């Protein structure tokens, strides 16, 4: 799909590119900052207080005591919980439990999944929607279970979402999914 077609599909006007953002974005647009403030209570003061409270809670919890977490990792959980440190702690505990109970999510995939058709069932579209969100296209008809295990299938989905959620714009604007069941 050409850039003009993507622009047209997103805005309805091929000459209006003011709302088209690339997937790879290294700044936070003003409208995303406003969205974070209005919908997630984001502010410098809430960030400071939230990080302070969450670090204290993490240091007091046996599962996370002694781990030096990066601020950007903690901010993703605080943002999701509108800077409620208890809610952020709960989310981090869920991640630790996931790692404990389903450790394969966090392991390397033992083969080059890009070389087999079944490993190419997920596509992240190259442009964001006008609200800044990312769109992921799942084509389940490309999956052949003799080529890929269910664990690897789930692992690929998990990895894609985790990687996308590292971006602060995506944390605020979100992710959309298109599920294509043709040829299944």
From TrEMBL:
<dbReference type="InterPro" id="IPR036273">
    <property type="entry name" value="CRAL/TRIO_N_dom_sf"/>
</dbReference>
<dbReference type="GO" id="GO:0016020">
    <property type="term" value="C:membrane"/>
</dbReference>
<protein>
    <submittedName>
        <fullName>CRAL-TRIO domain-containing protein</fullName>
    </submittedName>
</protein>
<dbReference type="GO" id="GO:1902936">
    <property type="term" value="F:phosphatidylinositol bisphosphate binding"/>
</dbReference>
<dbReference type="InterPro" id="IPR036865">
    <property type="entry name" value="CRAL-TRIO_dom_sf"/>
</dbReference>
């Amino acid at each position: 799909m050409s850039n003009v077609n993507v622009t047209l599909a997103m805005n309805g006007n091929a000459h209006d590119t003011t709302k088209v953002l690339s997937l790879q974005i290294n700044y936070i647009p003003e409208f995303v900052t406003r969205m974070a403030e209005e919908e997630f209570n984001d502010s410098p003061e809430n960030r400071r207080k939230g990080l302070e409270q969450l670090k204290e809670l993490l240091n007091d919890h046996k599962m996370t005591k002694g781990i030096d977490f990066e601020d950007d990792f903690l901010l993703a959980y605080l943002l999701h919980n509108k800077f409620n440190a208890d809610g952020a702690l709960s989310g981090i505990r869920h991640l630790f439990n996931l790692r404990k109970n389903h450790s394969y999510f966090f392991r390397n995939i033992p083969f080059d999944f890009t070389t087999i058709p079944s490993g190419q069932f997920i596509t992240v579209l190259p442009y964001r929607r006008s609200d800044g969100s990312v769109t992921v296209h799942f084509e389940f008809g490309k999956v052949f279970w003799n080529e890929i295990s269910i664990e690897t299938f789930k692992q690929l989905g998990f990895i894609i979402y985790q990687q996308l959620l590292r971006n602060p714009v995506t944390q605020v604007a979100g992710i959309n999914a298109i599920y294509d069941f043709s040829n299944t």
